[in-house]
What we know:
Layout: H1 2-39, E1 43-44, E2 47-50, E3 54-56, H2 57-60, E4 61-62, E5 71-74, E6 81-85, H3 86-95, E7 108-113, E8 115-118, H4 120-133, E9 142-148, E10 155-158, E11 166-172, E12 178-184, E13 191-206, E14 221-227, E15 246-247, E16 262-263, E17 266-268, E18 273-280, E19 283-291, E20 295-296, E21 300-305, E22 311-318, E23 321-324
Parallel strand pairs: 2-7, 18-23
Antiparallel strand pairs: 1-4, 3-5, 6-7, 8-10, 9-13, 11-12, 12-13, 13-14, 15-16, 17-20, 18-19, 19-21, 21-22, 22-23
Amino acid sequence: MISSVYKLRSRWFRNEFIYPFILTFAMAGFLPNLAHALSIEPQLHEKVTVQGKLVTLADLFDHAGLNGHTPLFRSPDPGTTGNISVQRIISAAQKHGLNIARRPRFSMVTISRSSRVIELDVLKDIIHDRLAENSSATDEKSKLIITIRNKTKDLHLDAKLQGEVALASLDWSSRSRRFTARFSVPGNEPIILKGTALLMVQVGVAKSNITRGTTLNRNDLELKLVRSSGRRSQRYSSINEMIGLSTKRTLQAGKPININDLEAPRLIHKNQLVTILLKAPGLIIRAEGKALADASKGEAVKVLNTQSKRIIHATAQAPGLVSVSLKQSFGSGS
């Protein structure tokens, strides 16, 4: 019984004297700090960087108080910067209970919005790879050139969007060479890119103007990427293919060289005096003749026998040399 009475008195003593005493001292230290905190004047920032779509009191001010989460303005687009007058900001802040006694010395606040940058070149590479996969026209001597028409700079998305950028669809016309690509990003509107995809082919061109009848060497030629015209098989794509050939017409610098622009070098020229050679077992006969046309190695050419004044059919063998077979005679008619 005595023990129970003692416990009741102890509890009463703690509740009536000890706890109030402790609370009084605690409040004596807390209340001045709280009063000091409430008396700190908000400080406006001259430059602010935000992530979201809205600019809040806490973004603009230090010590914005309990209403710091309150939105005041819309943010600029991701990756861009905008300016708001100090007067407009203070007016909006005061409407939400923020007391601002002293104005800052600056008159404008610069607000920038951070972003996730999507490089345009990366998207172009994705389009290029998809088209190259579906095209049999590309090889080591050709190249697809992707040009974006509706965008010129890297894209800026909301900084909070971290999902993968994926090519959702790609429509391409082989006739017009135009495409429309649609990229998806989780949480963001689709990215639509429009442009052209040109197939460029490697062709041989002359470094400078070359006159007709010139035998080409490596220093005369170079390779150049040009837009495919569907005539690739009629053009040279290797310098080695053209070395040693002769021009049938004047070549213009930088213009693609077509197959029919070149020919084997002329060994025989019209009106040239040539040696006519007949070879047979145990027999070699030579005579003089006059070529009646140009001819390359292995080509047939008519030759006038200067002794008999008869025309024979010969074959060009070397510069100034033609040959005839046993079936032909030096004196046969044309």
